[in-house]
Specification:
30% of the residues lie in helices and 11% in strands.
């Protein structure tokens, strides 16, 4: 029977009598990423809380809500993650991990369509005189090309860093796709979201195209992640797993807690795909 993983913060890792030692576990993994992994996620739960494996597994978690790939790949800004992989400035913080779990790209996408940058990033400012008739009409293709280049460069920077580390050069990295989000007025908390709905409204995207534009963005991001072509990177492809939230709802709906975060049932649905992909690569 699968065993729920134990999640700890870096400062709990083998830190004297009050610490947690990987020696008591069959596997030790490192998790970095955004709010889908972070302690600060809505109501304190996230994907890591629902992961289960055939062996007793410890996951040291360094994720931060709202984190973007370029922040994760900025070793000065995010020192816990790289130092646990290669030892840090003193060379003594590194651990050998069985797997590195990475949740990234989602916040980058949300930022790239933000209402703060109307007509300057991924979305077109739609004209009333010539309204779009398809989701693709709402994207600025040159901007998408730049965004894809940015995504690939930062995934590669993280991959290369792990590949040249002394202890973790053979450690596989597992990244994931997201799932189809419904643009709706469902914030995570007062002043925290929604994200897609105001972006689409600010760009004057016709309401009839809101869902198809959101789906296209998720599919485009999925296409990048699935085609990274990095030898040490494996993809947990979860697109199409969750039941989409209903349009017009303002809170929990189907498998979604708010506009861009699954609820407990949603994360629970995604967990088996993580287990199958990871144990299919490193063994049960």
């Amino acid at each position: 029977m699968p065993i729920p993983a134990t999640i700890i913060a870096p400062w709990q890792l083998d830190n004297g009598e009050a610490g947690t030692s990987p020696a008591g576990y069959g596997r030790h993994m490192l998790a970095e990423g955004d709010s889908w992994f972070a302690y600060g996620s809505v109501l304190g739960f996230n994907q890591l809380n629902f992961l289960q494996f055939t062996q007793r597994t410890l996951i040291t978690q360094t994720a931060m809500p709202g984190d973007t790939l370029d922040h994760m790949a900025d070793w000065w800004r995010d020192s816990n993650f790289p130092s646990l992989i290669d030892g840090g400035s003193y060379g003594n913080r590194a651990w050998k991990f069985d797997a590195i779990l990475l949740s990234g790209g989602g916040n980058d996408l949300i930022d790239a369509v933000s209402e703060r940058y109307v007509g300057k990033r991924l979305l077109q400012l739609c004209s009333d005189g010539s309204p779009p008739t398809a989701a693709a009409d709402c994207l600025r293709e040159p901007a998408w090309d730049q965004f894809e280049t940015y995504l690939r460069a930062n995934f590669k920077k993280i991959s290369d860093f792990v590949a040249v580390s002394i202890r973790n050069r053979d450690t596989p990295i597992f990244v994931h796709t997201y799932d189809y989000m419904t643009p709706r007025n469902a914030p995570a908390a007062p002043g925290f979201g929604p994200w897609l709905l105001p972006a689409l409204q600010a760009h004057q995207v016709p309401p009839a195209l809101w869902q198809s534009v959101a789906d296209l963005l998720v599919d485009r991001l999925r296409g990048v992640i699935r085609s990274l072509g990095l030898a040490n990177v494996h993809v947990v492809d979860t697109v199409g797993t969750l039941a989409q939230a209903l349009p017009g709802t303002t809170g929990q709906s189907n498998d979604w807690l708010n506009e861009i975060h699954p609820d407990k049932a949603g994360f629970r649905k995604l967990a088996p795909q993580w287990q199958q992909t990871i144990e299919g690569s490193i063994g049960a």
